[in-house]
TrEMBL record:
Record-given protein name: DNA invertase Pin-like site-specific DNA recombinase
Active site: 27
Alphabetical list of Pfam families matching this protein: Resolvase
Keywords from the UniProt entry: DNA integration, DNA invertase, DNA recombination, DNA-binding
GO MF term list: DNA binding; DNA strand exchange activity
Domain Resolvase/invertase-type recombinase catalytic, chain residue ranges per copy: 19-152
Keyword Plastid among record annotations: no
Family of this protein: Belongs to the site-specific recombinase resolvase family.
Keyword ATP-binding in record: no
GO terms for biological process, alphabetical: DNA integration
Organism phylogeny: Bacteria, Pseudomonadati, Pseudomonadota, Alphaproteobacteria, Hyphomicrobiales
Length: 315
């Protein structure tokens, strides 16, 4: 059995370079993944991520974390396509996320391997099938609406049109459940940064640090997600406290500290480039950042206790 981290993600052993990462899923806790794990290990997967979740739902936290942490050149492997995706469109979304990170996907029992020309051809066929499926559904929906109107009926849920309390409550509950699943599936990617920076840093600085890693947060969306976690007792209420007013140079110091803490492998030159991309000006008002300016702010942040340990950031 492979080693799993506390978050359910694979842990690399010393000196090892993982290439194949298996993903095994069953619908209920009573079902077992041993058969899938045997196939995956036989295919060369030294690491296997296991998840229990319904095939009808896209809310799969373990899969989301795996896709977010997989690196270029690694291959996500499943025994069968239905273990990964609930539909063709879902499958294509996952593969698109993997491709964006330079990773590949392989299904052992299906002709899908995005690292080979034949596998990519099969994937393109699936994409065409998915497009045709969407077009047919759209045509059937339009035909159904037209037929209903000829009979004097209005499309949609009668309870929603009449704004009946029970119908509106069901819709609200469904939306809340979908939102909760989305936040829960991604919280491990952004909540640690929020915990490090809030409430000492204003929300716009937190958003900038998160977005410079490729996220697409807005202040309103991030605050809403944090409020939900606080309501569900998954985050400290102090995160929502008002941040103290800061001088412009203090704000730069905390911003640089946040970037350094969230990207420990970044050099001071890397941080300078990030600050220029964020259109931040130096304490002297210049638009060009030098590693020495970053170092001065990091040294101040250390003395102020904003960095937990001495930074190993290099120029």
């Amino acid at each position: 059995m492979c080693a799993l981290s506390p978050a359910g993600l694979p842990m690399k052993g010393p000196g090892s370079k993982q290439r194949l990462i298996g993903y095994a899923r069953v619908s209920t806790d009573e079902q077992a993944t041993e058969a899938q794990e045997i196939e995956l290990r036989a295919a060369g997967c030294e690491t296997i991520v296991v998840e229990h979740g319904s095939g009808a739902s896209r809310a799969r936290p373990a899969l989301a974390r795996l896709v977010n942490t997989i690196t270029a050149g690694e291959v996500l492997v499943v025994a069968r396509l239905d273990r990964l995706a609930r539909s063709v469109s879902h499958l294509l979304d996952v593969i698109e996320d993997l491709s964006a990170k330079g990773a590949h996907f392989r299904s052992l029992r299906d002709p899908i391997d995005t690292s080979t020309p034949q596998g990519m051809f099969s994937l393109q066929v699936l994409g065409a099938v998915a497009q045709l499926e969407r077009a047919l559904i759209s045509e059937r929906t339009k035909a159904g609406i037209a037929a209903a109107r000829k009979k004097g009926k209005l499309p949609g849920n009668p309870g929603v049109r009449a704004r009946r309390p029970e119908a509106m409550a069901k819709i609200a509950a469904a939306r809340q459940a979908a939102y909760s699943a989305s936040v829960h599936a991604t919280m491990n990617d952004w909540l640690p940064t929020v915990r490090r920076m809030r409430p000492d840093h204003p929300w716009d600085d937190v958003v900038r640090v998160l977005n410079q890693k490729g996220a697409r947060w807005t202040e309103a969306r991030l605050r809403r997600a944090v409020r939900w976690l606080v309501k569900e007792h998954l985050a400290d209420t102090a995160l929502l406290n008002k941040s103290p007013p800061r001088l412009p140079e203090d704000r730069l110091m905390t911003l640089v500290a946040g970037i350094a803490a969230s990207n420990p492998d970044h050099s001071m030159r890397d941080i300078a480039i990030q600050l220029e991309r964020l259109h931040e000006r130096t304490p002297r008002g210049s638009s060009k950042w030098s590693p020495s300016s970053v170092k001065n702010l990091l040294d101040r942040a250390q003395r102020a206790g904003l960095l937990v340990r001495e930074s190993s950031t290099t120029t």
